[in-house]
Design a protein that fits this description.
single chain; 358 residues; alpha/beta; 4 domains; five-stranded mixed beta sheet; elongated
Length: 358
């Protein structure tokens, strides 16, 4: 509060007291604390109007750092800033070197006050996303994603294979291990359920097998140029099971090409990550199961419901099984036609109602 306001309030109180009011009544009417008014009065009597001016806030805390410590922090920044790149590391570095013993936040505060900025770790150069191969057709059973997830209470790793186009959950395998063996078994089950093993046996693709097995792009391009197209594309992260020679050998034997996402970039496998997130989010009881046999049975039930009952936004709110079997577009078109028909009916009804009014 300004000194002139305080002086004015004191004058009003003195005037009220001179007119016969009590000081307490006057302070209550002016909404001023009586003890505060007495303090103002004492300050005014001792030093005049200038004594009513408030002192600037602040002061130094008894436990505040010393100037020598402030200087030590700045020296620490200049010597070790490029190496540690963190105010927390600098604080611990100062203690290890017995230069200054202060908290992490104190180092940060001092550096900010001096306008000193720690650069932090350098940004990693972004890796360009690998494009889809030219031979890939975006339709069911042409591109699959697969990955492992864990159910810790049952002590089981679960691998799932998902069709990227239709979002159909093709196969699942529960196991206490996550190796190339489980991957092969799960893929074999998916190929069998989609009746693709007969297609593989009917193809004469020795050149394609050799090209897929070597893992180099040039032989694969030559095989594709000769008309030997891979059966499908398998999308995964860079886990050791996916990168192993055993996995590449198996997938080459069934004419499946591999497509790896960028390291530390789970969005490159967003489809399979979304599957696991939805399953654990919509059926949370799965993570409470401790019996592996019960978990396996429940996952089979959930997979059936996921594929045949649950509507998925990514494929136009139809079930994955409908979209996988080619019924999805019919359902989507039926909704579009129904929406247009309902819109027209509402227009016709309103126009008819308006025409009947006098």
């Amino acid at each position: 509060m300004d000194a002139c306001v305080k002086a004015g309030l004191l004058e009003l109180i003195d005037h009220a007291v001179a007119e016969g009011w009590s000081r307490r009544r006057a302070c209550r009417l002016l909404d001023v604390d009586e003890s505060r008014a007495a303090s103002w009065q004492a300050r005014h009597a001792a030093g005049g109007p200038e004594a009513l001016i408030d002192q600037s806030p602040g002061g130094n805390a008894l436990h505040g750092i010393l100037e020598v410590e402030r200087a030590a922090i700045i020296d620490l920044y200049r010597t070790w800033g490029e190496i540690d790149r963190s105010h927390r590391k600098l604080a611990h570095r100062g203690s290890q070197l017995d230069l200054v013993h202060v908290s992490d936040s104190t180092v940060r505060r001092v550096l900010l006050a001096e306008g000193l900025v720690l650069e932090g770790n350098p940004r990693r150069e972004p890796t360009e996303r690998r494009p889809w191969p030219d031979w890939l057709e975006w339709k069911p059973n042409r591109v699959w994603a697969y990955d492992f997830t864990h159910f810790s209470r049952a002590k089981r790793a679960v691998i799932a294979v998902l069709d990227l186009v239709s979002r159909k959950w093709l196969a699942t395998l529960c196991s206490p291990e996550e190796t190339a063996t489980q991957l092969e078994a799960c893929f074999w089950a998916a190929l069998e359920s989609e009746q693709l093993l007969e297609v593989i046996d009917a193809r004469d693709t020795d050149q394609l097998r050799t090209a897929l097995l070597c893992g180099e792009p040039e032989p694969l391009a030559d095989a594709i140029g000769a008309g030997q197209i891979p059966l499908l594309l398998a999308v995964s992260d860079n886990g050791p099971q996916m990168r192993s020679h055993t996995t590449r050998e198996f997938l080459a034997g069934v004419h499946i090409a591999q497509h790896f996402g960028r390291p530390h970039t789970p969005t490159d496998q967003a489809w399979i990550e979304t599957l696991f997130g939805n399953v654990k989010g919509e059926w949370p009881h799965l993570e409470t199961i401790t019996d592996p046999a019960v978990l396996e049975a429940e996952l089979d039930t959930v997979r059936t419901q996921y594929n045949t009952v649950t509507l998925h936004a990514a494929i136009g709110y139809v079930t994955p099984d409908d979209d996988h079997e080619g019924r999805g577009e019919g359902y989507r078109q039926r909704r579009r036609d129904g929406m247009a028909m309902a819109h027209q009916k509402r227009l016709d009804y309103r126009r008819e109602q308006q025409g009947e009014q006098p």
